[in-house]
Specification:
It is found in: Endoplasmic reticulum. Homodimer. It contains 15 helices and 17 strands. The chain has helices at residues 2-10, 14-26, 31-41, 61-72, 89-104, 149-165, 191-196, 200-205, 217-223, 256-260, 298-315, 353-374, 394-406, 422-425, 452-470; strands spanning 82-84, 108-111, 117-121, 130-136, 139-143, 173-178, 243-251, 264-270, 272-281, 285-286, 322-331, 337-338, 341-350, 377-386, 390-391, 411-416, 431-436. Strands 2, 3, 4, 6, 7, 8, 15, 16 and 17 form a 9-stranded mixed sheet that branches. A 4-stranded antiparallel sheet has the order 11-13-9-14, covered by helices on one side. A two-stranded antiparallel ribbon has the order 1-5. A hairpin with a 5-residue loop joins strand 2 and strand 3 (117-121). The longest helix has 22 residues, at 353-374. The relative contact order is 0.16.
């Protein structure tokens, strides 16, 4: 597999490499050294300073862990939990921390109108489409300190690794910190990457979007120093092809790698989420005075629909189909009052879009049937988002596989059942993801943890993959 990938990139460089090899020999450079460098990289060497030994790919694990720990202190809840909400004071401080680290790595830093942060290392052919990497640092309430963070701090360290090794990229390398991958404040997941991918619907919606405290998105963004005097956020849109590749490093958020003792997961596909909001309206009444045959209980309608979600997902007969009722609210919310209103928010996802959409249709039919049977009103059934799945690009999968093999790290192909910014970056460029193990698969909770060794392995695979892709 590694050989096949190397051959893919060999042909366009052959002539230049041969010329460079002749020149180097004439200048007295040892051809054996050049061959060693070529064997290491899997690519012909047309520029000096490519590392000639895998041992040069050295990760500063102590410094990286210190950065992870320090970033976790920018939190609105006490350790070991992390809460970092979009455009909050702690979020703004964390952003400054990231920009400083990018600066220390010698990257040129810029930000867009919603706060996506970009740090670029110019290649020796900067006119070519860059290779990008990155993730997010926002954190849902009472979560952990590794989700997303490993993909941002690890990406900066991967650049440092390559710089220390003496590598010179052909294509520029760019680290991206995405704004608001989590939907915590405004209910919009992958806000920054979704907007970068050119979502006109989102750009329009953000002009009217408010949080739970009725603060508008634009006001919140301006309070953090973004969207300055502008309501047109289309400046965030990126043209397709602006990057030749995007690779995201992330903790697995599941138990498979740890249970199987495998160091690296190579993601082949990302399951696509769809979110649904459902409202039932009944009559309510006193919990003691209204007899059971006479009730129009909106709460029981919600409970029955929640069970229907589970049934329809299981009926798909695919382990890749999942559904969750993550929010179920009753009004008035008193123990001695029959619920007159209920509100559900449902998450369904799958790597097969048609199969997932079939589940959504069945949930809708169940909601209608339950409303009729219980004599309540289905006042809303709204599909909030219905994103298509994303497939990793073959060339990036091959680069990640080759890098893992060259580093002697056990790896496996797997899908991501959680969605990531990579889902939307796939609309802009070829995409791939690298997973590393995390303790018991824990995520979105304070117990979330990945070892220094696992993080270092992920950073090395990322660094070598970026190097390969930058020379393509």
């Amino acid at each position: 597999m590694a050989l096949r990938f190397s051959l893919l990139v060999l042909s366009p460089l052959l002539l230049l490499c041969c010329c460079h090899g002749i020149k180097a020999h004439k200048d007295g450079e040892d051809p054996t050294t050049i061959k060693t460098m070529q064997d290491f990289s899997g690519y012909p060497i047309q520029e000096p300073h490519f590392p000639n030994s895998l041992s040069l790919l050295s990760v500063d694990t102590l410094s990286l862990q210190k950065q992870i720990d320090e970033l976790s202190t920018f939190s609105d809840t006490p350790a070991p939990s992390v809460t970092r909400i979009l455009y909050s004071e702690k979020d703004v401080l964390a952003r400054s921390f990231i920009k400083n680290l990018m600066g220390f790595a010698g990257l040129s830093v810029r930000e867009d109108a919603v706060g996506n942060i970009f740090g670029r290392w110019d290649g020796y052919e900067p006119e070519l489409a860059a290779v990008s990497t990155g993730s997010h640092i926002d954190a849902i309430p009472y979560s952990g300190k590794y989700d997303g963070v490993v993909g941002v701090l690890g990406a900066i360290e991967a650049i440092n690794v390559l710089q220390r090794s003496g590598f010179k990229p052909k294509r520029s390398l760019e680290v991206i910190m995405f704004t608001s991958e989590e939907p915590t404040r405004f209910g919009i997941s992958c806000l920054g990457s979704r907007l970068m991918a050119g979502s006109e619907a989102l750009e329009k919606a953000l002009k009217k979007t408010v949080d739970s405290k009725n603060i508008s998105f634009l006001d919140a963004a301006r309070s953090a120093g973004y969207a300055k005097g502008e309501e047109d956020l289309s400046s965030v849109f990126l043209k397709k092809g602006i990057y030749s590749a995007f690779v995201e490093l992330h903790i697995e958020q599941g138990p498979i790698l740890e249970e199987e003792g495998i160091s690296i997961g190579i993601v082949t596909a990302i399951a696509a989420p769809a979110s649904i909001k459902v409202d039932f309206e009944g009559n309510g009444g006193h919990a003691g005075a209204v007899l059971m045959p006479n009730r129009n209980d909106a709460g029981l309608a919600a409970a029955e629909l929640a069970l229907a979600v589970e049934k329809h997902v299981l009926d798909s007969e695919s382990i890749d189909t999942v559904g969750t009722v993550g929010i179920l609210e009753l009004h008035p919310g008193a123990i001695n009052s029959i619920p007159s209103k209920s509100h559900l928010e449902i998450d369904t996802r799958d790597i097969d879009e048609d199969r997932r959409n079939t589940v959504i249709e069945k949930i809708h039919h169940s909601a209608l049937a339950i409303a009729q049977k219980r004599d309540v009103k289905l006042s809303e059934f709204k599909i909030v988002n219905q994103d298509p799945p994303a497939l990793s690009h073959d060339s990036i999968i091959k680069a990640m596989e080759a890098s893992s093999q060259e580093l002697n790290l056990a790896h496996k192909l797997m899908i991501s059942r959680a969605y990531h910014d990579s889902l939307f970056m796939a609309r802009i460029s070829p995409m791939g993801m690298i997973f590393i193990p995390c303790y018991k698969g824990y995520s979105h909770k304070p117990e979330e943890f990945s070892s220094n060794e696992d993080i270092a392995n992920g950073v090395k695979v990322l660094a070598l993959t970026l190097a390969k892709l930058s020379l393509y």
